[in-house]
Give the backbone structure.
Amino acid sequence: MKLRGSHATTAVRRGTRLGLAAVALAGALACSTVTPATAAPERMQGCGWNESRNGERAYYEHCATNTNVWIQVKSFPRPDYHRCVGPGRTNLDFDATGAWYDSTYQGGLCSHPGDTGP
């Protein structure tokens, strides 16, 4: 006749398995948070206004993928103006000194990238 293990032995085995699974999961999560930080492209400075550097013109990076939006462009010596931009990078005029999303201008959304307004 074969005796089965006690409930205490079964509970210890189950607890050991759960503990090992938790350690493995924590290790996988730790590795996954490090990878994207080192894999980020150097070219992209970030969403929104990016000033000119190394001979490149200033640009606006619109990070959404499904909308066109109005941005207000600050320039000197010309007056500020609005411009419709689509997803991705939009090079700005040589005299641009700043740009930001303007949700108050015509509702913030636009249809034709490249359009400008006052």
Summary: The helical segments are 7-39. The longest helix spans residues 7-39.
